[in-house]
Structure to design on (253 residues):
C-alpha cells in the first residue's frame, strides 16, 4: 500500500494569517468633537429660539457617525469575505476526511463480522466433535442456545471458548440426569428453558393449577376460597354474617 504524507503534527498545518490594521488617523479628532457635541447638548439651556440650531448641529455629528458606520460594515464585509473562503476550504477538507473515516469504519465492521463468522465456524467444528457424547444433542438448536457474543470476541481465546463449552455440556448433562430422575415432565420443561430452578418452579405451578381445577370439580365446579378466622367471637360473628346473607359455605372441624 502506498503511503501518504501529511504535515508535521508538531508544526501544525501550513496556514498563515496576518491581521491587517484598519487605518483611522482621524479617530482622536472625531472622538474629541463627539465629546464636545455631547457636552454642548448637556449644558445648553434649550428654548424655542435655539432648538432648531441645536438640532442642526447634532445632525452634522450624526452624519459623520453614520458614514463611519457604513465604512465599518464595508470593511467587515471585506475581511469576512477572505475568511469565508478559508472557512469553506477547511470544511471541504473535513468532509473528505469524514467520508474516508466512515468508509474505513464500514470496512472494519465488515472485517470484524467476517472474523467473528470464521471463529463461529471453528467453534462449531469443535462442538460437532464433542456433542455426540452428551444427551443435549437431542436439541437441534443447542449450539445456538449455548453460544454467546462474548465467545466470538477477539479477547476470548479458542482455548477458553472450548473450556466454557465443555463446562456447559457437563452441567447440562448432569441437569438432564436429575430432571430425568424426577420425571419426563421435568425433563421436558428443562429442555425448554435449560434452567433447573425455572423448570421445577414451572412444573410445580402447573401441578398447583391442576389441583385447583380438581378441587373446583369436586365442589361442583364452583370456585372455592379458603379463609382462616381466629378467635371465638370473630368466628361466631363471621358465621352469623354468612348465614344471614345466604352465603354458601362449609365448616371444617
Amino acid at each position: 500500500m502506498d503511503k501518504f504524507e501529511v504535515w508535521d503534527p508538531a508544526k501544525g498545518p501550513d496556514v498563515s494569517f496576518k491581521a491587517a490594521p484598519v487605518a483611522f488617523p482621524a479617530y482622536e479628532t472625531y472622538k474629541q468633537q463627539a465629546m464636545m457635541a455631547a457636552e454642548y447638548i448637556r449644558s445648553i439651556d434649550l428654548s424655542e429660539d435655539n432648538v432648531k440650531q441645536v438640532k442642526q448641529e447634532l445632525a452634522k455629528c450624526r452624519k459623520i457617525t453614520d458614514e463611519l458606520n457604513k465604512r465599518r460594515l464595508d470593511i467587515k464585509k471585506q475581511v469576512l469575505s477572505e475568511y469565508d473562503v478559508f472557512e469553506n476550504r477547511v470544511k471541504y477538507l473535513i468532509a473528505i476526511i469524514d467520508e474516508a473515516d466512515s468508509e474505513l469504519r464500514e470496512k472494519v465492521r465488515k472485517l470484524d463480522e467476517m472474523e467473528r463468522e470464521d471463529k463461529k465456524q471453528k467453534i462449531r467444528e469443535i462442538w460437532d466433535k464433542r456433542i455426540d457424547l452428551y444427551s443435549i444433542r437431542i436439541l437441534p438448536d443447542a449450539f445456538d442456545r449455548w453460544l454467546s457474543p462474548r465467545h466470538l470476541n477477539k479477547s476470548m481465546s479458542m482455548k477458553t471458548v472450548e473450556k466454557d463449552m465443555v463446562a456447559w455440556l457437563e452441567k447440562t448433562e448432569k441437569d438432564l440426569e436429575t430432571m430425568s430422575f424426577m420425571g419426563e415432565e421435568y425433563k421436558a420443561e428443562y429442555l425448554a428453558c435449560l434452567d433447573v430452578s425455572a423448570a421445577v418452579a414451572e412444573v410445580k405451578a402447573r401441578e398447583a393449577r391442576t389441583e385447583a381445577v380438581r378441587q373446583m370439580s369436586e365442589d361442583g365446579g364452583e370456585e372455592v376460597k379458603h379463609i382462616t378466622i381466629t378467635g371465638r367471637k370473630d368466628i361466631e360473628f363471621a358465621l352469623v354474617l354468612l348465614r344471614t346473607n345466604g352465603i354458601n359455605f362449609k365448616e371444617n372441624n
